[in-house]
Automatic annotation (TrEMBL):
Belongs to the HAD-like hydrolase superfamily. CbbY/CbbZ/Gph/YieH family. Its cofactor is Mg(2+). The keyword Acetylation does not apply. The keyword Hydrolase applies. Gene3D superfamilies: HAD superfamily/HAD-like, Putative phosphatase, domain 2. GO terms for molecular function: hydrolase activity. Keywords: Hydrolase, Magnesium, Metal-binding. This is HAD-IA family hydrolase. SUPFAM superfamilies: HAD-like (SSF56784). InterPro entries: Beta-PGM-like, HAD-like_sf, HAD-SF_hydro_IA, HAD_2, HAD_sf, PGP-like_dom2.
Length: 221
């Protein structure tokens, strides 16, 4: 029986991937390589920031200045302050399972997670239980962040349900030994995304949080 919920963040708690990838597309275009939001999804979705920087450098064919990281982060966070919204139904889902231990396990940086939770007025819902891949050796698709999260909350991976939206996150969570619900509720999700999540190993797919609630309720029964 599963006894804890582990949430990815971008695309699972916050509908942030559209905003973040719009900024990335704008920046790479400004650097001389025309890039659409769809291009950005294919190149950067689900990756840690260091991996994104490396991919941009590969795309534009040159090393980025040391100031780039701070400028990109500031621009992205400003877009979040202006326009970030939660995934529809996530608050109600959390309230439904309020007695179940929960945490966040994300590829995003601690600063970005803290700001986004503050913008969404959700900090108290995960207080002290927000884990970033920057705190482990390897990011998704490796299982490190989920193993770290489960150890931190004191519940074994086999007793954790992970809510994920990216193939790399699903791969990481299944490798850790968790039960994985692939969520298809965010603004960046495309028609074939569910097939990618199933291929990555998702045990269940949910089109929205109402469907995720039914799945999780059965797993907790």
């Amino acid at each position: 029986m599963a006894k804890a919920l582990i949430f990815d963040f971008d695309g699972v708690v916050a509908d942030s991937e559209v905003l973040a990838n719009t900024v990335l597309a704008e920046i790479v275009t400004e650097l001389g390589v025309p890039t659409t939001v769809e291009d950005s999804y294919r190149a950067y979705l689900g990756k840690r920031f260091s991996e994104i920087i490396a991919e941009i450098e590969k795309t534009v064919g040159r090393t980025l200045p040391l100031s780039f990281s701070d400028q990109y982060q500031a621009r992205t966070l400003d877009r979040f302050r202006q326009s970030l919204l939660p995934i529809a139904g996530v608050r109600e889902f959390i309230a439904r399972f309020d007695d179940v231990p929960r945490c966040i396990a994300s590829s995003s940086s601690p600063d970005r997670l803290a700001l986004c939770l503050d913008v969404l007025n959700m900090t108290s819902l995960f207080d002290g239980r927000v884990f970033s891949a920057s705190n482990v050796e390897r990011g998704k698709p490796y299982p490190d962040i989920f193993l770290h999260a489960s150890a931190s909350i004191g519940i074994p991976p086999s007793s954790c349900i992970v809510i994920e939206d990216s193939p790399s996150g699903v791969t990481a969570a299944t490798a850790a030994g968790c039960t994985v619900v692939g969520l298809l509720a965010a603004g960046h999700i495309r028609e074939d995304h569910g097939a990618f999540l199933k291929k990555a190993g998702a045990h269940y797919l949910a089109l929205d949080y109402l469907e995720a609630e039914r799945i999780v309720a059965e797993l907790l029964d």
